[in-house]
Amino acid sequence: MSVHSLNMTLKQTKILEAALELFTSEGYHATSTYKIAKYAGVSEGLIFRHFHNKEGLAKAIIKDTSIKINKHLDSITKEDDPKLVLIETLNLPFNLNSSEIQNWNLFFKLKWELPDNNPITMELIKKTLIKAFTKLRYKHPEHEANLVLNILEGILSSILQGQDEDQNAFNTFLLNKYGLI
Amino acid sequence: MSVHSLNMTLKQTKILEAALELFTSEGYHATSTYKIAKYAGVSEGLIFRHFHNKEGLAKAIIKDTSIKINKHLDSITKEDDPKLVLIETLNLPFNLNSSEIQNWNLFFKLKWELPDNNPITMELIKKTLIKAFTKLRYKHPEHEANLVLNILEGILSSILQGQDEDQNAFNTFLLNKYGLI
Amino acid sequence: MSVHSLNMTLKQTKILEAALELFTSEGYHATSTYKIAKYAGVSEGLIFRHFHNKEGLAKAIIKDTSIKINKHLDSITKEDDPKLVLIETLNLPFNLNSSEIQNWNLFFKLKWELPDNNPITMELIKKTLIKAFTKLRYKHPEHEANLVLNILEGILSSILQGQDEDQNAFNTFLLNKYGLI
Amino acid sequence: MSVHSLNMTLKQTKILEAALELFTSEGYHATSTYKIAKYAGVSEGLIFRHFHNKEGLAKAIIKDTSIKINKHLDSITKEDDPKLVLIETLNLPFNLNSSEIQNWNLFFKLKWELPDNNPITMELIKKTLIKAFTKLRYKHPEHEANLVLNILEGILSSILQGQDEDQNAFNTFLLNKYGLI
DNA sequence: CATGAATGAGTCTTCATTCAT
DNA sequence: GATGAATGAAGACTCATTCAT
User: Fold this and answer.
1) DSSP-derived secondary structure for A98-118
2) Does residue B154 fall inside a structural domain?
3) Most distant CA pair in chain D: distance in Å?
4) Distance (Å) from CA B13 to C1' F12?
5) Which domain range does residue B56 map to?
6) Would you list which residues of chain D are within 8 Å, Cβ to Cβ, of chain C?
7) How far apart are CA A132 and CA A70, in angstroms?
8) C14-49 pLDDT per residue, tens
9) Are A86 and A148 in contact (CB under 8 A)?
């Protein structure tokens, strides 16, 4: 199931899982390698043998999360039908399972806590949206793409921060707005 | 100019300014009280005399920033004309001076790094938007308000993170979209 | 009522009372001048204006307590009848009021925490006991005096530490042992 | 020789020895973890790795000392002959080697400085004394035991505090008093 | 591969004390 | 006499990291 199963030892995976969990819930700086080791059931030294230092661990996790998020976006970025692209994009924040929630949470946390180490970008989805809006003959496809992206991040953010709106109704409202239902 | 001029000593203000600056640029956990004291030109102990502990300092800053942001939003929330409300809201992220940039930056940083200590809310502006959309006879004023809020936060976020779009063009595009120009 | 009423200001007295209370309950090192000032309702600086430093404050309190304890022992040391001397000595730990308990507590606390600064001695009562045992024609008046002193300190200590024996019965037992009832 | 040789590393033992020495001579609050580390030839952090915090270190030492004191009392508490029990009890404070002096000193110091953390009790010896006095057909074995305990603590205290009596003579006097020589 | 003892620099915080007002 | 702002040194404790085993 895990991404790390290839040439990783069990303990290496355990460390990554623990760090992912803790970085996500507490943030990077508030999570000590000691805590990670305890949580992973592993000696602290092992973290450094495998990932060289704390930053290395962070990078490994960011890479993983980046892959997972991109995989999550696959159904959008590999879609040809422009309407479906839009529908899937606007549905995305309302259908998150717990693992996806974690990934996005980490994405936002690190974006603000470690602005320099942020290789997780939304470039691919942006291009997909531009293409879709172009096909749909919108006048300003790039601005439209930007707008949807901003909406997407805004909604994701408010959902992750626990704003308790009626999400389903808002989802419907959005699809309506873009004439998709 | 500063909010703190009332009962505060010069050094107290210096501490708040230093902490604001450093929390904003590096984040809460990455900023040590030692760094703050050095930056403020003050003994470290003084921080604790005045703010009890690091968290107390953070709370003081959050409170200040909250006030400043609300003041920043005043021109929107005190506006009666619904069209002007919308215009001002959609213009807001594109006309930030450096102090406002700092305030919003802190807002986002702490929102993700200290999720529990986040009294800065957008409730007031939401209500204002709902009222505006109601006056303008939109069918779903609350959803519309939510949408604008999400757009607002999305744009603010991407501007603060340094995404280098053509901001002016995007601003115009948005106003057009809502039929405001 | 207080010993300090002569040429002391109200606040000076407040400080001494606070320090006595806190030194007694928490010990010397565990009591900060900050705590004392707060407890006394006084500025911290005032402690140093009146007592020069923390040690000076301790000395003032030790002196006071020494006087109070000696006053407490007066009824013994000024007694002529040797039997009454013994009776009063053996009764002493069983009839303490709250202020006397505090004084003895401080006596023991400081005796072990600040062994060098301990001018509160039991010399006078020892001499009184020797005189009494001499009058009563005991063979080894000095050893007898020592023994009673040890018993006295032992009982005081166990009472202050909260050993919950039947104190009355033990008191009677002791008086009996010395043929005093 | 030391109690700690089992699962403990050399440095762990060194820390305990240093802390024992310093707590005994200066008291708990007057001894900083920095001082302990220096004295033990060890990094300060190591204290916390092994004992969690300063209180944990104190508890470890109290436990050790408790064991040592109980061992010291073994010759009394495991004695059957009631006369020998009394003799050994009354001799105890007059035959202390330097290590025993240290243990008792710590016992008294912490009893007054950390009243809550005091698991070193004299319960066992009290029971032994009650049994002895019962066998010797004293009327009030429990009170007699209490009395001897008070005497014992009184003498220990005055010896540790450096009262310079003729200890041998006093020892003889006591044994005589109880008809043991 | 894995552990856990060990470290030194750093973190937050408290302390006794000073001093201008 | 009295305050309260201010300090520098020291306090307990945590951190990322190293290394022998």
Assistant:
1) HHHHHHHHHHHHHHHH-GGG-
2) yes
3) 58
4) 29
5) 10-177
6) 27, 29-30, 108-109, 111-113, 115, 140, 143, 146-147, 149-155, 157-158, 161, 165, 169-170, 173-174, 177
7) 18
8) 999 999 999 999 999 999 999 999 999 999 999 999
9) yes
Closest-CA residue of chain D to C144: D173
Q: How far is CA B155 from the centre of its chain?
A: 13
Alpha helices in chain A (DSSP H): 10-26, 33-40, 44-51, 54-77, 82-91, 98-113, 123-135, 141-160, 167-177
CB-based burial, C62-88: b 16+ in 10 Å, e otherwise: bebbbebbeebbeebbebeebeebbbb
Largest CA distance in chain B: 58
Express each pLDDT in A138-156 by its tens digit: 999 999 999 999 999 999 9
**D161 and C111: CB-CB below 8 Å?**
yes
HEC letters along chain D: CCHHHCCCCHHHHHHHHHHHHHHHHHCCCCCCHHHHHHHHCCCHHHHHHHHCCHHHHHHHHHHHHHHHHHHHHHHHHCCCCHHHHHHHHHHHHHCCCHHHHHHHHHHHHHHHHCCCCCCCCCHHHHHHHHHHHHHCCCCCHHHHHHHHHHHHHHHHHHHHCCCCCCHHHHHHHHHHHCCCC
What's the number of CA atoms in the CB half-sphere (13 Å) around residue B117? Answer: 18
- Domain assignment present for residue C103? The answer is yes
| CATH number, domain containing residue B74 | 1.10.357.10
User: How big is the A-B interface in CB pairs under 8 Å?
Assistant: 79
CB contact under 8 Å between A173 and B112, yes or no, is no
Contacts of C27 in chain D (CB under 8 A): 29, 112-113
* pTM, to two decimals: 0.91
Among candidate residues B55, B67, B122, B137, the one with its CA nearest the CA of residue B92? B122
Nucleic strand E near CB of residue C26 (< 7 Å): no
Nearest chain D alpha carbon to C112: D109
Please give the tally of structural domains in chain B: 1
- Does any domain span residue D5? no
The distance of Cα C57 from the centroid of its chain, to the nearest Å, equals: 18
Residue type at D25?
A: S
Q: Quick check: is B27 in a domain?
A: yes
| The token pair that represents A82 in the structure block | 């422009």
pLDDT in tens, A128-141: 999 999 999 999 99
Residue C131 identity: K
Find and give the residue nearest to F19, measured CA to C1'.
A45
Query: How far is residue A77's CA from residue A126's CA, in Å, rounded to a whole number?
Result: 9
